[in-house]
Design the sequence.
């Protein structure tokens, strides 16, 4: 035998052993703690969902689940960390609509949002609310559109920040209704809420969780929810489609999990099953409901296709709104 033949045979045997070992590795997974990267600060929606899911995953997998907050750059810093991690199932991340939008708005990232990750599955969605102060002369979406058309460029809408899901929800509303709103960004939801209460802006788009207290107390009035279905916590509030006759307008914030590209398919399948088992558990569902989200599971393939569609959708909104990548 030549040295080259021997070397080739050794390589072939090693490759076969690696393939044979993959299912065994997945069967034994996990053997140490799993780290969930949250690309936002503690206490936000993504952090709360990750901690609820992580606790239940820990109980099912028999290993610790560690939540690591790595906020910054609209969630892209945390995503970059996951993209660079070993694809072994021990570092995963939670993905939100905001992270997809941040990727759409940023010119240069160290990773490709659509190819750097393997999808694990979606776990929840949450609608936004369009709210106004009680004396604002619009009680539903039709009134709001009529007011904006009668006063082009004078009606203002606030959001928790430029490039936030709430901002792009407003831009899509403008485009769908054919009206001219003026966006006023703030640094946080509390600031945006204070601004509409003090009449600095006319309406705001924000999560149900952020504004439900003011709506229930009568400090703010809800004009519509932005998803295609009514939201359980405010079931008396119609959707934009119902209230304003805007077919196709459907904006939700959502949560799902992802891993670095190249994670073994058996581990992806095991994590997906674990996630779906978690959200089928009554205790976890109740905790998620109290956090203001609706449970929604998926396959890895369906979640991957959904994220790609979301990226394409918000890219179209960005272009139509004339927002330059930064």
Sequence:
């Amino acid at each position: 035998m030549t040295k080259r033949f021997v070397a080739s045979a050794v390589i072939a045997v090693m490759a076969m052993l690696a393939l044979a070992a993959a299912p065994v590795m997945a069967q034994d997974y996990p053997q140490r703690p799993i780290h969930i990267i949250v690309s936002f600060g503690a206490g936000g929606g993504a952090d709360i969902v990750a901690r609820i899911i992580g606790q239940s995953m820990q109980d099912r997998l028999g290993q610790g689940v560690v939540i690591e907050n790595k906020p910054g750059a609209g969630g892209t810093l945390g995503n970059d960390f996951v993209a660079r991690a070993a694809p072994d199932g021990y570092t995963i991340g939670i993905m939100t609509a905001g992270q997809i939008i941040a990727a759409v708005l940023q010119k240069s990232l160290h990773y490709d949002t659509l190819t750097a990750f393997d999808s694990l599955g979606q776990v929840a969605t949450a609608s936004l609310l369009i709210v106004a102060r009680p004396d604002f002369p619009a009680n539903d979406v039709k009134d709001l559109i009529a007011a904006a058309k009668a006063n082009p460029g004078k009606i203002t809408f606030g959001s928790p920040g430029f490039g936030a899901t709430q901002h792009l929800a407003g831009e899509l509303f403008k485009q769908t209704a054919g009206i001219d709103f003026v966006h006023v960004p703030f640094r946080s939801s509390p600031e945006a809420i204070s601004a509409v209460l003090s009449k600095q802006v006319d309406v705001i788009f924000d999560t149900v969780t952020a504004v439900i207290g003011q709506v229930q107390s009568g400090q703010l009035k809800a004009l519509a929810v932005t998803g295609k279905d009514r939201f359980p916590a405010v079931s008396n509030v119609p959707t934009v489609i119902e209230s304003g006759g805007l077919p196709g307008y459907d904006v939700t914030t959502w949560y799902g999990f992802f891993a670095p590209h190249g994670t073994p398919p058996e581990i992806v399948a095991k994590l997906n099953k674990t996630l779906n088992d978690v959200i089928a558990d009554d205790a976890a569902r109740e905790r998620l409901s109290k956090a203001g989200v609706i449970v929604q599971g998926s396959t890895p393939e369906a979640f991957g296709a959904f994220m790609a569609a979301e990226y394409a959708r918000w890219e179209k909104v960005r272009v139509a709104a004339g927002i330059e990548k930064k």
